[in-house]
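Thread: "does anyone have the structure for this chain?"

Original post by V.I.:
We have the sequence but no experimental structure in hand. Need at least a predicted one for the grant figures.
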Amino acid sequence: MKQIYSAFKKSIFIIIICIINLGAQPWNREVITGGASYISKLTFDNSVVYAATWGSGVYYSRDKGASWKPMNRGLANQYVYTLIAVGKSLLAGTEGGGVYKCNKRKMVWRPSNRGLGGNVVFSLVEKDGVLLAATWQEGLFRSLDGGNSWKRSSEGLGNSVIYTVTAGKNIFYAGASKNGAYISKDEGAVWENIGLAGMSILCIHNLDSVVLFGTWKHGIFRLKKDANEWEKIEGAFGESVKSAAYREGEGSLYCAKRMMGIYKSGDYGETWSNIGLAGQDVFSIVALHDRIITGTWGNGVFTLRDGSTEWINTYKALNGRKTYYSEQKAENVQVGSNNKQPAVDKPSLTGTRQDINGLSKSHITLVKTCYSGRLVVCYKIKNSGKVSLSLYDHRGRVKKEKMQIVQGKKIQETSFCKEALKSGIYFISLRTSIDREVVAVVHLK
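Reply from O.Q.:
Generated one for you, tokens below.
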């Protein structure tokens, strides 16, 4: 989920930091790019790891993430939120381009949108020939022919924003924005709300006897299938849980928590221990038999081998080098203990790193709303001079513009938009005399 969050009062912001090279043309979809280090989804299939990126399409690795190659032939929209393997094919859900499909051997993409159109597709799932696509403000779409054609399948959902969808045994689960959890027992045709009203569900993971729901700002909830009862997993910091993975042989569950790193549980989520990557915004996890691979927002892919405490930034292997990330505190931190972690507004690593660029070059440090609904942008530039700020809607239309002269090397706070914004995707452009930066903001009221 083609996602850094900052929430104040009743608004949720997903801030995507994007560095734009000098000389870029006026704003358009091709210019707003995070690149290969912005990983939105990881998928493992038949010994191959696939990575969906925001702005650089899809990559694959045949050596468990040690090296990566692009596979973007025919992929016209390279802002990819989600990626799944179905038989001999891969399907990618994109930002405003609907679904693309490719043969895993030929690696040539083609649009697969008949009946779906150019929707924003956040999540895809397939079970027993039923394929579901979770979309922005249009609920769910269903395909019964491998994604070649789609029909809307949102009875009970309406026009909800659906962030995630997953499958169980003869059942499907969906997570909506601010509308909680849904269930379908008829192959995704009709949906029923089963709880967590008022919450936004970011990920769902189906286990043998329970289903785990990761939420925005409310931590993790567990649904017991036999009793149909909800249980809040205490001590989960109340933070956002974006991704989860389960390792069958080991019986361990892994979850990614916003800016708090990776947590591990060996008892279906009863207790958790931190295993590193604090300060990284982890969007996706895959659990292989001998290692954990994670995709981060802005710093590429990290791998942790079994028996090791050293994370390797394997995205840099694209350029012939690897980066090692070592935690200063090796001991595990139990969730719910008295060891509180500091609040983090932007990535600040607690360990050491080399050759990781990403957000370190960013001017914009925070976007927030005030009590009146005004949009406030906090930023810092290297040298004193003129700064131009512009706000665009998702179609590239200018909503607001502001220019000012500011002092360098100091945090600036600018009231940028005086009226409340409607829900939607916006882009903030910050331009100096030497470079330009763009931040994508998903605003949910």
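V.I.: this helps a lot. Residues 1-33, 317-361 have pLDDT under 50 and may be disordered.
O.Q.: and The first strand starts at residue 5 and ends at 8.
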